[in-house]
Each structure stands twice: as structure tokens, then as C-alpha cells.
Amino acid sequence: MAQSSDSPLPQLPSSSASQTSQASIASVAQPGNASACLTHTSFLGPWILDSGASDHLSGNKDLFSSITTTSDLPTVTLANGSQTVAKGIGLALPLPSLPLTSVLYTPECPFNLISISKITRTLNCSITFSDKFVTLQDRSTGKTIGIGRESQGLYHLTSDSSPAVCISTDAPLLIHNRLGHPSLSKFQKMVPRFSTLSSLPCESCQLGKHTRVSFPKRLNNRAKSPFELVHTDVWGPCRTASTLGFQYFVTFIDDYSRCTWLFLMKNRAELFSIFQKFYTEIQTQFNISIRVLRSDNAREYFSAQFTSFMSHHGILHQSSCAHTPQQNGVAERKNRHLVETARTLLLHSHVPFRFWGDAVLTACYLINRMPSSVLHDQIPHSLLFPDQPLSFLPPRVFGCTCFVHILTPGQDKLSAKAMKCLFLGYSRLQKGYRCYSLETHRYFISADVTFFEDSPFFSTTSESLPVSEVLPIPIVSPPEAMPPRPLQVYHRRPRIVAPLPFPEAPADSLPIPSASPAPALPSPNDLPIAVRKSTHEALSHPGWRQAMVDEMAALHSNGTWDLLFYPLVDRLKARLVAKGYTQVYGSDYGDTFSPVAKIASVRLLLSMAAMCSWPLYQLDIKNAFLHGDLAEEVYMEQPPGFVAQGESGLVCKLRRSLYGLQQSPRAWFSRFSSVVQEFGMLRNQRLGETQVFLGIEIAQSSSGVVLSQRKYALDILEETGMLDCKPVDTPMDPNVKLVPGQGEPLGDPGRYRRLVGKLNYLTITRPDISFLTPGQGVLYENRGHTQVVGYTDADWAGSPTDRRSTSGYCVFIGGNLISWKSKKQDVVARSSAEAEYRAMALATCELIWLRHRLQELRFGKDEQMKLICDNQAALHIASNPVFHERTKHIEVDCHFIREKIASGCVATSFVNSNDQLADIFTKSLRGPRIKYICNKLGAYDVYAPA
């Protein structure tokens, strides 16, 4: 607006120096960004940052802190061409942190101009312009010393500590949305030019904050110093988990400043660790200790750790009386304010509820920077941090569309320079906005963000599913105690789904005479019991729809899953799956059987590796099912999105098996077995030395091979909440007999069945899973022989309900435990000899099967196997060809065992009951007995110190 020649302007005189006289200098006007000012009505407005002015200029004498009039002041040329002589030069303070020296006083100029070129030299600052704001920053300290706002093409300087830094001439409702939907009174205090507003027609505030009439206020006895009293309360659980899995939050409110700290939690057990961090932060940042903590009677505030910590640091813990939340009213009211604001933020921009964690953090950030009536309209943040600006970033509308600048190194020059994101708040520790990408499921903290505040990211709350496919899920509430006096309780009326009529018959169908004795049969799709092949089809029928509602309600009440957002993906994997459920047996496929490895075979191979010192490696067959050859003609539609160009009418005739086909497992095994027989090479991926196989942890050394399921056992303990339990030497009292019908029914039978199944799988490496530690495992060593020895035993009439016996056996190869089993017999044994003999038959079958495996593998010597039993009567029956009334009903077992003994395949021998190793598989034993047998079986705690 005004520019001088190369000669310097006179400077403001100091107390110790006189003013130096200089010649009058003519100024030439240059077009700058303030040239348009003269086209507006003249008024004394705020300071304007002008890139075309060579000197600071003001026509308002009241803005000068000091002013001097000399005879050699320069001539100023204005943008309209007129010239005038400056009437004085002095010091002005637009901001406390922004002193302007050598400001020319020109009454003819109706504006206050700050020369950008001069202020960057005199104050050593940098100036950053954006489309709406300008920021002045000290180069040496990095501190923001001034903030400006663009209005009608000009950048007006505003206060850097004012909460109204985002405000110029925008509509009041937009500013209200940016500031997080404050109340009308707070809004008018933050933006005084709207003090005449009588109301704010914000529908989101009505939906999110509508309350009943409040009770009379009480006296305000506020603390006299920071952290003299801290209020706290836990909110939750939220039915919908946040994007990062949080379901609770805890607040800590300083009673003096009412400044709030908010922390998200996944469960209430995290409270103590969070309070420790909060206490340490207060001590470090303020050099103050918390004196009194006030809370309700929640259990987590009275844990042993929490109580010990409070006592150790001398913190008084005040708690409210039972059922008296008014005594913790500050925290209760603050949580209500936070939740109301967060709910309003979500509703206003139609943001899904899974982002409630970000909404409540944003609400806390904004509330801390709003005037509080309790503080006589002071701002909590300013009370606690008087030397800090309220915010380094202008507020934005929560949930709006934003674009984050991409700073990926080496990205393609033609790729997009920004990523479309959802604005979710502000960073607590970084000077940036918190944005979320629904494409990559990642959070971004960035200062290079462009906002479309009038464009919510989500247009509606139900755009993810059509209305017809959104099922009502009933909320199952826990039973509550009956109140002492009658209460009128209103229950939400359940949503009733009207039954849908069957589809009408087509117009061209033949009518059925009314006198016909047999009514027309509906099509299979119209039958109530017809199996629907898609969710859409099922929703079209009232019976299936109600069944789905009932199923979902059961899943929710059982806590089957937690609603979370997508986690970070380690690796993307796609697989084309054929719709095998549309195949017809006999036409599209025939036999489907495919063998699966028996776990005893796996243990046998690992034992062989230990005895022969073979290294163990793992291989992963790439796309295993795709190597199988199909014997049938199978056609498949082209995969959606991958239709060959110009061949949209063609279908795929499969030559190889594909995932999803009924015959794929059998086709793959046939192909695999043929290649292995030819000793060909397979395309595979080497996974290194074997460490984990089907959940079994495998460790190999020069001493042998150890099998363990420690992680699997710890997972079971964690699932059942028994990680801190202590092992016992008598896992089950031998004198206790479990009888059906006794005791209380289980509340969750499904959970019991799952645990039984997991314990069954744990027996892969644990002959006895009820003793010692989770690190228990089986050790395989090279003992110098390959003899096969089996132990067999039976608990005669051990079941108190049906008096059936339990068979048990274990088989050693080369001294290593390979196979074991515990099974209840199918029929009642009339004597202990009969029970023992049936157990011998079961063990003999396992011996024969293992012998065949060894012969196929050509491993070891073809020597006689031993079968050891502790019942003399059973051994006599096996050795003597005698049949009478005691044995005729087990003749098949007799013939089978005698045949193997006669052929020399198996030899029987007697063992004392104290040395019977199979005893552990038939009945409950006591601690010393269990420990003795486990030692003989080769079961060790592989993690115990040597």
C-alpha cells in the first residue's frame, strides 16, 4: 500500500538516543493484496497483512503505544495514486507477542497495514499462507506469534490466544459446528458478535443433548489450587467397541481448573496403570502432587494395587456413598457433558458409532477450551496453561470430508497427491489433525489437510445396508433387583416383523378347479422348510427372517464376538472358490474321501527322526488343491471382475481341482500320492526347521526331539481366566464319582463342549493333561533299539451309572511313547478278566497298525511285539484255546488275540499293578502316582530349569 525508496525510514527514538534528522522521501504506490481496500467503505478495521507495503501503516492514532512527530517524515503514495505525508512514526502492539516499530501514522489511510517484508526482517519470523489462514512463527523458537484469517481476499491479523481464531464472517451455525456444538451461552461468550442470538436451531444438539429439567444448583466450593482435588469416574461399557477395540473411558477432572484428562480403555482392569501414568504426568509437568482423589464405589478403585499406591503416595481417597452419585457430581456431570457432545458430533455428520472413541476425545479437547460458568467464564485450559495458546490449529467440523497430503517417498508422479479421509479430531502430542482412511483402515496425523466442512464423509447412517436387510437385534439386559417401592417402568415395544405372503402364482400357470381333492403343491422355494441359498432369499421369508433374528440374539447374548474395526493387515491373500454347494452327487462328482494323517503317525515320524538324528524341516505346498486333476467334466462361470475381453458369454471348463469343489481333496491326494511314488519334485516353499506343526511346538537338539503344546495350554487358561492358578498334585479326587443329574446345570453348555474339545486336542502331547505345568511335553530320544511294547489296562465297572469299564493303553517304540488311548467300553463286562481282555484286543489292534507303518517305512527290525497286562486271568484266556460260558460272548476278541500270539507277532507278559503304566488312562490317581507314571511315560516339563 505504501512503499519507500532505498533510503531507510526514521526509527522510533529511544530514551538514550536522539532522533536523527533525515531528508523527506517520496513513496511510490505498488499494487499489493490490500489494493482492493479502497473499494470498500472506509472503516477502522483490524490489522491487515500486506505484501505490497514497504512499511507499516495506520490511520488510527489510538493504536499507537507511542508516537513521535518530526519534520522529515516520508511521503506515502496510496494505491489509488494519491500522495500524503506521514504525520508521525511510532510503536504499535497489535498483539503482545507482535511489537511493530517504525509504524507510519497516516490519517488519510483508513486501514492498518503490516508490511510483510519489514516484519520478517525486524522480528525474524516466517509467514505461512493458506487458503483461509496465515500463521506467523518465530524462526528461533518455533513458537506461533500471530495468526490471521482470510476475509474478502485480505488476511486480517487476529489474536493467537482467542478461541474465535476460526471466526470471520461465517454463518453462526457453521461456527457452532466447528466448535463442537457448545451451548448458546458459551457460544455467545466465545463469539461476542453473536450475543444478540436468541437461539441456535441445531437439530443435532436436540437429538444428542436433550435432557430433563435440572435440580436446583448447589453452592460452588471449588478447590483453591491445581490438583488439590481430582474427580474421576469410569464410563462404559459401550455396546459397540471403538475402531481400536475400546469399550470404556475414564476421566480425571482437576477441581480448580475443571480441565479434563480422558483415557480410553478396553477393560476396567486398565484403570490402575492409567492412573499411574496420569499421576506421573502431573508430577513431571506441574511439579505438584495430587492430594485428594474423589470417585464412586466401583471395584477397580479399591483393588489391592490401587489402595497400596494411594497409601504409599499419601493421596486421600474419597468415595461416594452407595447409590449416591450426587456426591461424585463433578465427574458424573462431566461424563454426561462429554457423552452428549460426542453423541451430537456423531449424529450431526452421520458418523458410525464405531468412531465414538474419537468423538469423545474430540469433545474433551474442545470442552477444555471453552468458557465455563463454574469458572466465571474463564477457560479451563487457560487457567492451567496460562502461557500456552488455546490451540495451534483452527477447529474444524467433526466428521467432515478431508484430504491428507501423501508424503510417500518414491510414489508415481501421476498418482494422487492426497488421500480422502474422515476428520476425527486433533492430536494431543502433535501439531496436526487426526484423520482416518477407510481405504487403508489407518489413522493419519497431519498438518497438510484440506477440509470440505460442508460435505460430511457419511451421507446417511444406514447406507451400508438396505433398510430391508437390517435385522432388529433385541438387547438382552441382565435381571435387576426388584425395587422396594412400585415403579412405573416403560419398555420399548419390540419391533414386529409382519409376515410376508407367499409369491403369487405366475399368470400363465394353469388354474386348479376348486373341486379338486388335491391342492397345488408350492414350489420348493415357497416351502417353509426350503433351504435358502443366500441371505437375500432368506430375508424374503418370514419364517427364515425370524429364525435369523433369534440366532443373532442368541449370539449377542452369548458374547460370541466383539464389534471391532479392521485391524492392520500383514498380508493380503485372495483365493478363488468355486460354488461347490451347487454340485450334484453322481453327476458332477463321485467319491470325495481323502485320507488325513493320524496323529500317531506324526509322532512316529518324529520319534524316528530322534532315533536316527534326522533333521526336521517344513514345506508349504503352493496352491495345493490346484494340482489335482479332475476326472469329471465341471464347468464354472468366469470370476466376476476378471471376464476375458470379448468373451463374456463363455464359461470355464475346469481341468484342475479348485477350492470349493466337492472332489478337490480327493483329487489333490491322488495327484500327491502319484508324484511322491515317482519321487518327483514338487513346487513348494521351504519354511525352515520345524518349530510348529498343527499347534504342536517342536524343538530338536542332539539330545532328541521334544513335543509340547505350551502356547495352546496357556491360551486355554487365558480363555478360562485361570492364568494365575496354581497347579495341584491331585487334579481329581479318586473317591468322587460323577453322576448325571447331580449338581447345577451349566449356564453355557456350548462353552463346556468347546473346552472339552480343546482338552482332547491337548492330549496330542499330554498323556496326562491334568498335572504339572502348561510346559509339559513328550521327549523322544535315541535309546538304541526299536522294540514295540504296549501296556494295557482296564478299570472294571468304573462307571457308577451304567457299570461299564474303561480301557486304556499306551504303546512305546524304541522306548518313546507313540500312541495312547482311553476309551469307555461299549458293553458291560461281567468280570475284570473280560474287561481286561477287551482292553487287550483294543491295544493289539494298535500294535498291528503300528507294525504295518514300520514295515511300510522299512524302519527297525521285524521282531516280536510285547503286550503287557496286569491281569493273570486275561493272560490265561489269551494263551489257552479254551472256551466256556465265561468267554463265549468275547470269542471274536479271543480268536483275534490268539491268532496274533500263535503267529509270533505278539507276545504277552505280566506286570505288577504298581508298574502298570496304562493305569493313568483308566481312572483318577493321586499326585505321587501320577508323577511316577508321567516320568515313566517320558512326559517332562521342558521349560523347567536344568
UniProtKB/TrEMBL annotation:
SUPFAM superfamilies referenced in this protein's UniProt entry, alphabetically: DNA/RNA polymerases, Ribonuclease H-like
GO molecular function, one term: metal ion binding
BP GO annotations: DNA integration; proteolysis
Every Integrase catalytic domain range: 222-388
Entry keyword set: Aspartyl protease, Hydrolase, Metal-binding, Protease
Stretches for region Disordered: 1-25
Designated name of the protein: Retrovirus-related Pol polyprotein from transposon TNT 1-94
Organism, scientific name: Vitis vinifera (Grape)
Gene coding for it: POLX_853
